[in-house]
TrEMBL record, chain B:
It comes from Sphaerisporangium album. GO terms for biological process: cell wall organization; peptidoglycan biosynthetic process; regulation of cell shape. The gene is ddl. Binds 2 magnesium or manganese ions per subunit. This is D-alanine--D-alanine ligase. HAMAP family: Dala_Dala_lig (MF_00047).
Length: 441, 319
């Protein structure tokens, strides 16, 4: 009889798991799995799809001929330096130029305190590496940059989100969160914040709140990690004064040329108090020995010979037109109940869907209609954000933005009907990474 | 050098399974190149038809999953271009790709397949979901398996063990398609049987047994190496393995398929197989089932792929 109830099995042989190393990975690799959402982003890379998903800068607007000439000139004149190892801290001349760039946001810094990194993403990795032990608390805006959340997860930090509104981090919420973490007997290692044109929310911390946030952190002895890739891409008036400008000892500042020049050079930096800087340099050397000399010198050459301030201005104008296009299209087309932020700079609009809708469940339908976005849950460490989506306007041309929003509005309208029919707009949860790779428009 | 000339592998497309298709295409291209064949890989976009007209390939290997790759559309275009290709003809694809239709066809030739209800989204809009869902549970009981009537890779599919999980499962299903297939869920051993016909009739390769880590063979379990344990051949008694093989060949034949297919089935507690669905462009990735079955049979994937291409060329010359 047992033979009849054994699912027709014969032997208990060992099977194959395809991956011979499956039993050896660190626990932190457990989340590194194939995901439905990533599969959908593969479709979004086709030109038929209007991708409002990725955050690729519009490098087409660069004077590529001039960049080509300066790169050729660099190899011809300084090839033996450009093609050699460099120092762990980065090229001294470039670090001087970086200080000049930061001066636009009110930062007076010494080039000795700058460490050049592989994009600001590596700066974030190094900062996390030197400060975080497993279980340490990192405070971050809710929502926050997905790449930062990935780094924090890799170092097994415990991320606690702090509420934001249209003016950025809410100071009262920050104070309350700090107190609440302290009551639990847990240690906050730093506050990670993108104060200007935040990714993904698009909001900016007001000047008044900047003072309040810094005061709260000073009193609670919380280090601030200020990530500022979009600070020079504001659409209204002068750049906001950086948090670091008024507190050299309480802030580690992360900067990048990815948005003001081009991400392909992968040149970013950290500006840190001396003692932290020393550790960052050692961490940098252990990670990659040194940054690419070639990329650093190319960026240095660009800053020295090209009208880079004018280029940033032209990027600002280009992105402002796209922001305006997206906001106008959302206003005209989105069904009632949808709300969204109105960024004064940067790349992103953060939309909140009507009650009961789940942006992740909507994505397949959107891709079928040839439009893509990033579901909100990827921007939270705690599973929040189901009703949110990030819409980027940096890469598509304005008429494509309009068309993308038109398609998306139709999808949301349909999903409202589905929600009303089934009494839920949520689908069963699944595993995997919910955001696109960096090379997706 | 190969006797085959220039061969085209189609991969990518605009279906939800684009990423999987690209991986399948890379794998097939790789094994064909290893066999000394001149291979070109192409996506299906506006450049395809002019490119094929300008330099017609000797044959095409379609590794497009979902959508136009499996519903017959791209094969109709290949017919219009008079280019030989591996796999089923458009009409057969259309029938096989639509899971409810395929179930009806195989049931008509005596193949066991779980009882099911097929309903488009509009029906729920028009009649109200709760009354219809309640009737489905009354009729089929629990647990249920909900999936889109078309498509693959378990996208939009889920198991429903409690009645209150059914609405979310329907929403998840309708995210990927407009018609849902709600089946009685058979608890059992998941098995896939690949069928290959190199010109001498369909032959079943050894069945592959699938044991997903979390118990559910979903998208993540399918395409993350290590997340699923495969037994090839499946741990089945010989007569059960034979029954599975016979079911796959019967389905392949009844649906009018040719060259290759993969039938997914489940073996219940009594050792009886139940037909779930058939794939006319089976996955060919590193974690896919057909390549595993080929290996379990002691065959070489490059030999099989090249033989399928030769068979396609012969068929076209004979027509």
């Amino acid at each position: 009889m047992t033979q009849e109830r054994d699912h027709g099995r014969s032997t208990a042989a060992h099977g194959s798991r395809i991956d011979a190393y499956i039993d050896r990975y660190a626990a932190r690799a457990a989340g590194m799995v194939a995901s439905e959402v990533r599969a959908l982003f593969a479709v979004a890379s086709r030109p038929e799809v209007v991708s409002l998903a990725g955050g690729m800068p519009y490098v087409t607007a660069l004077p590529l001929d001039s960049v080509g000439e300066l790169v050729a000139d660099l190899v011809a004149r300084r090839g033996t330096v450009a093609l050699q190892y460099g120092s762990g801290q980065g090229d001294p001349a470039l670090r001087e130029q970086i200080c000049e760039v930061m001066r636009l946001e009110g930062i007076e810094a010494n080039a000795d305190d700058v460490v050049v990194t592989v994009g600001s993403q590596q700066a974030l990795d190094l900062v996390t590496r030197i400060f975080i032990d497993p279980g340490d608390v990192v405070l971050a805006e809710g929502p926050s940059y997905v790449g930062a959340l990935g780094t924090f997860a890799a170092y097994e930090a415990s991320v606690v989100h702090v509420a934001m509104d249209d003016h950025g981090l809410v100071p009262e919420a920050l104070a309350e969160t700090i107190a609440s973490v302290a009551r639990q007997g847990r240690r906050i290692k730093f506050l990670y914040t993108i104060p200007s044109f935040q990714n993904p929310a698009g909001v900016t911390l007001s000047a008044a709140r900047r003072r309040q946030v810094m005061e709260i952190c000073r009193r609670a002895d919380v280090l601030v990690v200020e990530d500022n890739p979009y600070g020079l891409l504001g659409f209204e008036g002068d750049p906001m004064r950086a948090l670091r400008a008024d507190d050299p000892d309480g802030v580690v500042y992360l900067g990048s040329f990815s948005k003001t020049l081009a991400p392909g050079f992968r040149v970013g930096w950290a500006l840190a108090p001396h003692a932290v800087r020393d550790k960052l340099v050692l961490a940098m050397e252990s990670a990659v020995l040194s940054h690419s000399s070639f990329a650093q010198l190319a960026v240095g050459q660009y800053l020295a010979t090209q009208p880079w301030r004018e280029q940033i201005k032209s990027f600002r104008e280009l992105y402002r037109e796209r922001r305006d296009t997206m906001l106008a299209a959302l206003e005209a087309l989105m069904p009632p109940g949808c709300v969204w932020t109105r960024p004064a700079g940067g790349f992103f609009v953060w939309m909140t869907l009507p009650e009961g809708l789940d942006s992740k469940a909507i994505l397949p339908r959107a891709v079928a209609e040839r439009v893509a976005f990033v579901p909100g849950t990827g921007f939270y460490a705690d599973g929040s954000g189901a009703r949110n989506m990030r819409l980027s306007y940096c890469y598509p041309e304005p008429d494509r933005i309009r068309e993308g929003v038109r398609r998306l509005a139709g999808v949301v309208q349909q999903e409202l009907l589905t929600r009303d029919t089934f009494g839920t707009g949520s689908a069963p949860a699944h595993t995997g990474v919910d955001t696109p790779g960096p090379d997706l428009a | 050098m190969s006797d085959l000339g220039h061969v085209l592998v189609l991969a990518g497309g605009l279906s939800y399974e684009r990423e999987v298709s690209l991986r399948s295409g890379r794998r097939v291209s790789e094994v064909l190149r290893a066999a000394g064949i001149d291979v070109e890989t192409r996506d299906t976009d506006a450049s395809l038809v002019p490119a094929v007209l300008a330099d017609p390939p000797e044959a095409v290997f379609v590794t497009l999953h979902g959508g136009s790759g499996e519903d017959g559309a791209i094969r109709s275009v290949l017919e219009l271009l008079s280019v030989p290709y591996v796999g089923a003809a458009p009409d057969a694809c259309r029938i096989a790709y639509d899971k409810p239709t395929a179930k009806t066809v195989v049931r008509s030739v005596g193949v066991r397949t779980p009882e099911a209800v097929v309903l488009p989204k509009e029906t729920f809009h028009d009649l109200g979901a709760s009354a219809v869902l309640a009737r489905i549970i009354d009729r089929l009981g629990l647990p249920l398996f909900v999936k889109p009537s078309r498509g693959g890779s378990a996208l939009g599919a889920s198991i429903v063990r409690k009645a209150d999980e059914l609405p979310a499962a329907m929403v998840g299903c309708f995210a990927y398609g407009d018609t849902a297939l709600v089946e009685r869920y058979i608890e059992g051993v998941e098995v896939a049987v690949s069928v290959v016909d190199l010109g001498e009739g369909p032959v079943a390769l050894p069945p592959v047994e699938i044991v997903a880590n979390e118990g559910v063979y979903d998208y993540s379990a399918r395409y993350t190496a290590g997340h699923t344990e495969f037994f090839a051949p499946a741990r089945l008694r010989p007569e059960v393995a034979d029954a599975c093989a016979q079911m796959a060949i019967t389905a392949h034949t009844a649906l009018g398929l040719r060259d290759l297919s993969r039938t997914d089935l489940i073996v219940d507690a009594e050792g009886l197989p139940h037909f779930l669905e058939v794939n006319v462009a089976p996955g060919m990735t590193e974690t896919s089932l057909l390549p595993m079955a080929v290996e379990a049979a002691g065959e070489d994937l490059s030999v099989i792929c090249a033989s399928l291409l030769r068979a396609a060329v012969r068929r076209a010359s004979a027509e």
